[in-house]
Amino acid sequence: MDGFSVVQPWELSPIVGGFGGQQIYVVGAASDQVLAKNRNRRYLLFQNDSNKNIWVSLQTTPAVVGVGVLIGPGGSYEPLFPPNENIYVIGEGANLNLLVLEGQ
Length: 104
Known about the structure:
Layout: E1 19-27, E2 32-35, E3 43-48, E4 54-57, E5 69-71, E6 76-77, E7 87-91, E8 96-103
Antiparallel strand pairs: 1-8, 2-7, 3-6, 3-8, 4-5, 4-7
C-alpha cells in the first residue's frame, strides 16, 4: 500500500448531532423561507425534484428569480460551508418539489 486507505461510506462517522431532518417543500413563484436560522447547522443538501428551475438565497433575504444559487431540474446543491442564517427559495413555476436535508 502507499499509505492511503479506502474509507467505505458505512465507516464514516455520523454528523455530530445527526440530521436535523429531511423535508420536501413545495416551492412556488413567490419567495418562501424553507429553513430558519440555525447555529448548529453543519450540513445542507438541496435537490430539485421538479421540471423547472429553483433559486436559493443564502443571504438571509427573500429569494429572487435570477439571483442566488440556481438548481436546475433534477439538479442538486450541497454547499461546502452551509450558512447558519434563514434560507429562502423561489421557483420558476408553481408546485415544484424541493428536497432539503439539514445536518446538525
